[in-house]
Amino acid sequence: MKREYIFIGPPGSGKGTQTIMLSREYKLPHIDTGALLRAEIASGSEIGERANERIKKGQLVPIEIVSEIIKNRLKEKDCENGFILDGYPRSLEQAKALDKIFEEIDGTTQTDRKVFYFDIAEDSLIERLVNRRTCPKCGEIFNLKTIKGDTPPLKPLKRGDSLFCPHCEAELTQRKDDTEEVAKARFETYFSETHPLIDLYSKRNLVCTIQADKDIKTVYAQLKKAVEKNGN
Ligand code: AP5
């Protein structure tokens, strides 16, 4: 059965952290729209330039850009047995576009489709975001602080004042949209445009709620339990 998992939750709720762990264990490609857009920006492409205008304001990138990127990515061979969509869809309009993409790519394939909703109050998330650091090479996610007494699974390497990824030794970087000001705008965008998807997918009986305010390991345990329930 093809596994099609969609991760929805506010910025900093831990979608990326959990997707990395789940995609390694279940050998599913991690499709992270934000990372795909940041790669376009880094390449200096026209798409990247258009995306950057919105990302730096905490707004959604136009649908024609993201839906095309996702459609092409989901048609690639490594997605044949499934994938994790981290950051798409993010609006009712994108959900409609995704329904069409699924119709086109899945045909009569049997799918185990689930939507994981990362439920967490907004107040703890700004601190997570401003302290996030990522590896520009492998995408591993770190945090400068331990929050609520828990420790991210990996500690970065420290040399002088700089931090490096323990996998590939690249120097960790901070995302440009991880400032308090942009994070606030991202929350507003999330609540007005993305959160209504929970209602839409609940009506289709697809939603598994994950209590995302727990430590990373506990969140992962919930996720795995939900994945294995009726899974294959
Ligand atoms: P995107 O990159 O997708 O950002 P986001 O959705 O705002 O989510 P984040 O990546 O910020 O957070 P996360 O939930 O993955 O948290 P993480 O695991 O890293 O999108 C960026 C921008 O691109 C958007 O604003 C938009 O402009 C554009 N875009 C993207 N997709 C689009 C689309 N479909 N349409 C249009 N535009 C789009 O964790 C955060 C931190 O917390 C880390 O430091 C981590 O170590 C720590 N942490 C994680 N879990 C825990 C835990 N349980 N306890 C303590 N700390 C934790």
What labels describe this entry?
9 helices; binds BIS(adenosine)-5'-pentaphosphate; alpha/beta; 232 residues; Rossmann fold; five-stranded parallel beta sheet
Q: Can you offer a commentary on this structure?
A:
- The chain has 232 residues and is α/β, with parallel strands linked by helices.
- It has a domain of 117 residues: Rossmann fold, CATH 3.40.50.300.
- The protein is 44% helix and 18% strand.
- The strands form 3 sheets. The chain has a 5-stranded parallel β-sheet with strand order 2-3-1-4-9, with helices on both faces. Strands 5-6 form a two-stranded antiparallel ribbon. A two-stranded antiparallel ribbon has the order 7-8.
- Helix 1 packs across helix 9 and helix 4 packs parallel to helix 5.
- The mean pLDDT is 92.
- The site of BIS(adenosine)-5'-pentaphosphate has 35 residues, from helix 1, helix 2, helix 3, strand 6 and helix 9.
CATH-wise, what's the superfamily of the domain at 2-29 and 76-120 and 188-231? P-loop containing nucleotide triphosphate hydrolases
Task: Please provide the count of β strands.
Answer: 9
Order of strands, main sheet, comes to 2-3-1-4-9
Q: Given the C-alpha coordinates, what overall shape results?
A: globular
Unreliable segments of 5+ consecutive residues: none
Helix/strand class: alpha/beta
Q: What is the CATH topology classification name of the domain at 2-29 and 76-120 and 188-231?
A: Rossmann fold
Strand content: 15-25%
| CATH class value of the domain at 2-29 and 76-120 and 188-231 | Alpha Beta
End-to-end separation in angstroms reads: 7 Å
Mean pLDDT, rounded to whole units? 92
Radius of gyration: 17 Å
How would you spell out the order of helices and strands?
Answer: EHEHHHEHEHEEEEHHEH
Largest sheet: 5 strands, parallel
Q: Just name the CATH architecture of the domain at 2-29 and 76-120 and 188-231.
A: 3-Layer(aba) Sandwich
Helix amount: 40-55%
* Ligand inventory: BIS(adenosine)-5'-pentaphosphate
How many helix segments?
9
